[in-house]
Amino acid sequence: MIKRTMIFTACALILMGCNTPNKEEKVTSTTNNQNTEVVLSSQVNWSPLNAARGDASPQAGDLWGNRKENQASGFLVKFKEGFSSPPHIHNITYRGIVIKGSLHNDDPNAKSMWMPQGSFWTQPAGEGHITAANASENTAYVEIDSGPYLVKPEDQAFENEEKPINIHKSNLVWIEASDLQWTNLNTNDKSRNKPEIAFLWGQPNNNDSSGALIKLPSGFSGTFEASGKEFRAIVIGGNLTYKASKSKELDPGSYFGSTDNASHIIINKSSEPVILYIKSTGAYQLLSE
């Protein structure tokens, strides 16, 4: 019998977020649960993020949802080395996490703050800003709560009272599960290297959406038990094995998720930690095996 240890539960940390057809064909690999999908980074279909700029535009590819429709979505964006956008705004607020390279996103007159892999930022709707990249390869994960995602000139800027957030990876606060006194933890877990969490946004209650980074140590094997409305997981760093009827190797930029009760079995076979970004609406647990 496989012994499982509860690492954390959704109403206890953000790790549980206690709370249509895509016109671009997206290749997905389903597990035994029809509400679960897995998308490898190699399966992403790319197209210009801003078609009006043609070849000068970054490339984007949806992981879940459809950024061109009136719906929530999560997508990858690739920037060429030396890319720097003109000042512009967006019609909706978005959240971003650096997966590869080094990115800057701020007021047009701000001093550059290059954010490496694992950094997090938000861009409020209507606020003028620029985005730049300076590594040979640059990739970010971007998500929106409603669409479509549009780029508009800065002279159409408007105030919506939201404030931008830029968090360099060096400023993330990682908390070991056993250090959270308000979680439902199994103290019999004697492993020396335990998963950690860094809270990013939202309120971890039974109904609301929230987001966090989760760090899985080398050799970790366990299961995400998702029981809420939405569970989205994106590999930000490292390589993860996803076990289903046929195991899949997920590299940075890959995604797995579900929209109902589902189990996601994962293993970190590598010698390095795996970093996941989790967006959840509803409860989920992480159980070690």
Give your account of this protein's structure:
With 289 residues, the chain is an all-beta fold. The chain folds into two domains: 5-20 and 171-288, Jelly Rolls (Sandwich); 44-167, Jelly Rolls, CATH 2.60.120.10. The protein has no helices and 25 strands. It has strands at residues 5-9, 29-30, 36-39, 47-48, 59-65, 73-79, 88-90, 94-100, 103-106, 120-123, 130-133, 138-144, 151-153, 165-167, 175-176, 196-202, 209-216, 221-226, 230-237, 240-243, 248-250, 255-258, 262-267, 274-281, 284-288. The chain has an eight-stranded antiparallel sheet with strand order 2-3-22-19-24-17-16-15, with no helix packed on it. A seven-stranded antiparallel sheet has the order 4-5-6-12-8-10-14, with no helix packed on it. A six-stranded antiparallel sheet has the order 1-25-18-23-20-21, with no helix packed on it. Residues 10-32 and 182-189 have low confidence and may be disordered.
